[in-house]
Amino acid sequence: MRITQAALGTRLREARESTGLTQDEVGRELGISRSGVTLIENGTRAVSSLELDHLAFLYGRDIRNFFAAEFGAENALAALFRRNRDIADDPKSMSALRHCMAVGRELTNLERLVGIDRDPGSTVRYNLSAPRSKFDAIRQGIAIAEQERRRLGIGDSPVADVTELLEKHGVRTAVVDLPEDISGLTVFDAEAGPFVAANRSDHLLRRNFSFAHEYAHVLLDCDSTGRISRDSERTDLIEVRANSFAANLLMPEAGVREVLEALGKSTQGRLLAETPVDDDRAVGIEARGTAAVSKIHMHDVVLLAHHFGVSRQVVLYRLRNLKLISDRELQELLSEEQAGHGRQLEQLLDLPEPKHAKERNRFRHRFLSLALEAYQRVAISRGKLEELFAMLLEKKRGEVSLADYVGNEPPTPVEIPS
Amino acid sequence: MADAGVLINLIHVNALHLLERLARFEFVVVEHVVQEIIRPDQAAALAHAMQQGWIRRESLDRPDGLEAFADLLRVVDRGEAASLAWAASENAAIACDDRRACREATARLGAGNILTTPGLLLVAIREDLLTVDEADAMKTTLETRRFTMPFRSFRELL
Description:
The complex is a heterodimer of chains A (418) and B (158).
Chain A: H1 5-19, H2 23-30, H3 34-42, H4 49-58, H5 76-83, H6 85-88, H7 91-113, H8 134-152, H9 162-168, E1 172-176, E2 182-189, E3 193-199, H10 204-220, E4 226-230, H11 237-250, H12 253-262, E5 267-268, E6 274-276, E7 282-284, E8 292-293, H13 298-308, H14 312-321, H15 327-338, H16 341-348, H17 356-359, H18 364-376, H19 382-393, H20 403-406
Parallel strand pairs in A: 1-3
Antiparallel strand pairs in A: 2-3, 2-4, 5-8, 6-7
Helix pairs in contact in A: 1-3, 2-3, 7-18, 8-11, 10-11, 13-14, 13-16, 14-15, 18-19
Chain B: H1 4-12, H2 18-21, E1 28-30, H3 31-36, H4 40-51, E2 56-58, H5 63-72, H6 78-89, E3 94-95, H7 99-109, E4 114-115, H8 117-126, H9 132-143
Parallel strand pairs in B: 1-2, 3-4
Helix pairs in contact in B: 5-6, 6-7
């Protein structure tokens, strides 16, 4: 069924309304008057390909949506923004998220073109009832992290690359400039599937935790259109569960004990009773028992952090949760960390510092290699390849030169219209 | 309908004026292609060509064309998608060089609806707008930009 200009206008109006944008705002974005937008939405004025392309981006949609047999006025990003006006009112965050969603859709397209036909709805889900207490939330987080580790076949080993793990399992990842209070967010997009973003301003190791946290929302909270993880809502039970999951996914108890025992520490401790919510805070619950653990020093913490790819603060809270250190020891070690001893020891032990600036763009590698593969298979044009590189590297099209990397095009034959 | 690649090739060999003089064709460019040509000297050359009427600027805004544009974006860039979609909705041919875009053009426009840069230069020779030596010199210039043709001289094609 071919869509008419009037029907296209109606869809554009519905899409705009679902984002909460006014005709004035849209007009300003397009460089046309408010009445121009009204005419387009009424179907009285044609929308050009340039305008439609811009509108699809502005509304966080795939342009093909507007021509689909079924048109859903609501989309995940719009719903999330409506519920979180602070993000919707921050042009920088909005633009970055729209960009990332567009990248996610291009990645899905590239996967299809090279034969990786991933069903966006096929990501594993765990159906659990909502936690009734903090203890329940923590327990659920631990159980799902253990199940997920088993499912992924990673045993008690460190997760080498959280974003790679997520991408491999059908979750789109991105690093985005977000307001300070937000560590990450999850969106369930109909075309691209689950999409998670971590705050670009956070340190690489903190972002690893955020990605693992958001992964919990993907696995457990897919009944909503998405979630935003705010520091100010860390005591919310869903957030507690996600933090518990992240801590246990990144630092499994058996793995922690194994590393410590390899360092000559006895680790007979008591049950997990708390979970870190980020680098320097924890949600606690009561637990009984006593620890009979060899004293853990800052150099052990440094090695554990390096081994599991997490921050030293996360290690410290995890050790306390596992009752491998006491509250008093935690405070002492935190003071040492604040005094810079952790960093000094890291240098003394000759452990490589994570390359924050370089690693922040790690998620790009898979996208770009798929784009090159699609080009080599003549599944996309060279112009499309350049467009994708420019999009991902956030450069202008003319600033991206691939000539030295992808070689020459084969000779162009003579073709003349008959 | 002309894609950016062909236009940029012609700008490089200072032959955009041929578009006016090739009697068999009327050349059209869509907005997305105009936007893609961002190098100031190339943008100025295109603007001059449009001003002189050598090439007409069009907007892609018919719903069937927009739908084709949206679909084509999966495999080709915005300029190629808009050009192909416009050509398909207007039953026109397309001037383009890219392998993937040409494959898509054949699928959507049917065979015999593509004009490549070498094809355009050959038509210009046949219409006495270029000599073989001039066309070969252009071929050599384009080779320095990594654009190659599967023959040594246009003379082989005459």
